[in-house]
Write a structure and sequence with these properties.
Number of strands: 7
Distance between the termini: 67 Å
Strand order of the largest sheet: 3-2-1-4-5-7-6
Helix content: 25-40%
Oligomer: single chain
Radius of gyration: 18 Å
Largest sheet: 7 strands, mixed
Shape: globular
Order of helices and strands: HEHEHEHEHEEEH
């Protein structure tokens, strides 16, 4: 049985999604992931987005550990119901509504997001059948909604290729845990040469 590992609700058992259509992150992988995120110091007060949330395990773990807000996005009816039950567990312990559940397709949720909707930490644990072009399209929709120092975590089969990162997002780390591989990405910062060239082009345009 999965559980919340640490924070205000540490040790609390989580409700699991019945059946075999979802692939929950194991506690071993989750513990290693959050140890790394703690080292990055990105959880406390963060705006967290958990896409393809399943049971909401990663999102509610963030809520337990001090995230400011957590959005769980899950389309499947059974899974979104489980998300709500796990969100209620954490919200009850924390004493406020930290975790919000959105029953929606990931693509639709991102398309509805406004310019003011930005996240500091994003989890994507898509189902294995989701192909690489579809995942790349989701990352492209996500990209405009990342805070400047955001961290994006993509969980895939260890046999899957590296995700196709959109322009403006780049991988900075990856780690394999048995059959699972985690990819870590962040908004890319233009290098000094590119910035200088853009400034020169702007100056030239202004002088014409």
């Amino acid at each position: 049985m999965s559980r919340i590992i640490a924070g205000a609700a540490g040790g609390t058992p989580l409700v699991s999604v019945p059946g075999s259509l979802t692939r929950p992150t194991t506690d071993r992988v989750k513990e290693a992931l959050f140890s790394r995120l703690d080292a990055f110091d990105v959880i406390s007060g963060a705006r967290v987005l958990d896409l393809y949330a399943g049971s909401g395990s990663l999102g509610v773990e963030s809520g337990s550990r001090g995230a400011g807000t957590v959005d769980l996005v899950e389309f499947d009816a059974k899974a979104s119901g489980v998300c709500q039950r796990n969100a209620d567990l954490v919200n009850g312990v924390v004493g406020r509504k930290v975790v919000t559940v959105h029953r929606s397709r990931v693509e639709s949720f991102l398309e509805r997001a406004t310019l003011d909707d930005n996240w500091d930490l994003v989890f994507l644990d898509p189902p294995y059948p989701l192909d690489e072009p579809a995942l790349s399209a989701v990352l492209a929709k996500l990209n405009p909604h990342l805070a400047p120092a955001a961290v994006v975590v993509v969980e895939r089969s260890s046999r899957s290729p590296e995700p196709g990162w959109p322009v403006g997002m780049e991988r900075f780390a990856e780690k394999k845990y048995g059959e699972t591989r985690l990819w870590f990405a962040e908004p890319s910062v233009p290098d000094a040469i590119q910035v200088e060239e853009e400034l020169d082009e702007h100056a030239d345009a202004g002088g014409n």
